[in-house]
From TrEMBL:
Organism of derivation: Haloactinospora alba
Name of this protein: Glyoxylase-like metal-dependent hydrolase (Beta-lactamase superfamily II)
Stored SUPFAM superfamilies: Metallo-hydrolase/oxidoreductase
Domain Metallo-beta-lactamase, chain residue ranges per copy: 28-239
Pfam families, A to Z: Lactamase_B
GO molecular function, one term: hydrolase activity
SMART domains tied to this protein: Lactamase_B (SM00849)
Alphabetical list of InterPro entries matching this protein: Metallo-B-lactamas (IPR001279), RibonucZ/Hydroxyglut_hydro (IPR036866), Sec-metab_biosynth-thioest (IPR050662), WH-like_DNA-bd_sf (IPR036388)
Keywords: Hydrolase
CDD domains: TTHA1429-like_MBL-fold
Length: 331
């Protein structure tokens, strides 16, 4: 577990408020508070847990404010460590919530599924990926998924400009980690709120789920890394710590994914291979053999995203077998 840092004043009316994520190796989410005459506007909200709520309220009090004063919450994306407390903040203060329209659309689709429907969708995807019957049965015993986040009051689009106390906060759509992930450029102050798009030491999860969807999240992520690398700003991520030299870090992440793409491409042959058979060719921090089925599904989702990019680059061919399992071959 990472040590949670202190509240930090970054200048020009911007503070970072670390909000813990209990029992999670990420440790905390950096929620950023921007001062406005109407009360603070938050970038992200943190995990929905009482310990997280207490840290957020204490953090706001330390900068001379409180939750009741919050004017708005801008979500970089819908994941629960970023959106979890947004509804509680809105209920307490009457604050508006803003998020990209692609994430709002996804939240609506998730909310339309019952718990049983969502569970069956995930189990069906494990079958299509080539997981064993034992692993599928193990996954079926996991706890129910977290409730979807609240729908935003305002849906954002790429290039939108928000007026934050007379300063321009520009929305940069950076899909990949989530369909509606955005970075936010406070242009006059030179701050760039990155969410999970670029982190200083780890790479965000880029997954394809369901595995047979036709979009290319990794390709979109790589394109948006190229876009963000040209922004001259102080990089403020949602995890770890602020950093400089954004261009160098984006290059490292691109190189990381290109290496994985090459490894998977080299593993292909004329003999069809399932996702479960291909995923073992990649290095995983804990080792594939030591991973729980939930972690394996995440790894498979990430591998599927790489396979989709290889398909788009005409370096892999996908086929759907009569058993319903998806397999790939070399072109």
């Amino acid at each position: 577990m990472r040590e949670v840092p202190n509240v930090a004043r970054l200048g020009d009316g911007v503070w970072s408020l670390p909000v813990p994520i209990p029992d999670n190796p990420l440790g905390y989410t950096l929620v950023y508070a921007l001062a406005t005459p109407h009360g603070p506007v938050l970038v992200d909200a943190g995990w929905n847990h009482e310990e997280s709520w207490q840290a957020l309220t204490t953090g706001l009090e330390s900068i001379g404010s409180n939750v009741e004063d919050v004017h708005g919450v801008i979500l970089t994306h819908f994941h629960p460590d970023h959106s979890g407390l947004a509804e509680r903040i809105r209920a307490t203060s009457g604050a508006w919530i803003a998020a990209h329209q692609a994430d709002a659309d996804l939240v609506r689709r998730i909310a339309a599924l019952s718990g049983a429907e969502q569970s069956e969708l995930e189990l069906a995807q494990l079958r299509r990926a080539g997981a064993s019957s034992e692993e599928i049965a193990e996954y079926a015993q996991l706890e129910p998924r977290i409730d979807p986040p609240p729908l935003p009051d305002h849906e954002l689009s790429h290039g939108d400009t928000l007026d934050i106390s007379g300063a321009k906060l520009r929305v940069i759509w950076t899909p990949g980690h989530a369909p509606g992930h955005v970075c936010l450029h406070l242009e006059d102050s030179g701050f760039l709120f990155l969410g999970d798009h670029v982190l200083p030491r780890i790479t965000p999860h880029i997954g394809l789920f369901p595995f047979d969807d036709e979009h290319d999240p990794l390709g979109s992520f790589l394109d948006s890394l190229e876009q963000i690398s040209t922004v001259d700003a102080w990089a403020l991520p949602a995890h770890e710590q602020p950093f400089t030299d954004l261009a160098a870090r984006t290059t490292e992440i691109i190189d990381h994914h290109e290496e994985r793409l090459s490894t998977l491409s080299a593993a292909l042959s004329p003999s069809p291979a399932t996702l479960w058979e291909l995923v073992v060719n990649l290095p995983w921090r804990k080792g594939w053999e030591n991973m729980h089925t939930f972690a394996r599904r995440m790894a498979a989702s990430e591998t599927a995203a790489h396979m989709r990019t290889l398909e788009r680059r005409e370096r892999a061919l996908r086929e759907h077998g009569p058993d319903g399992v998806v397999r790939w071959t070399s072109p």
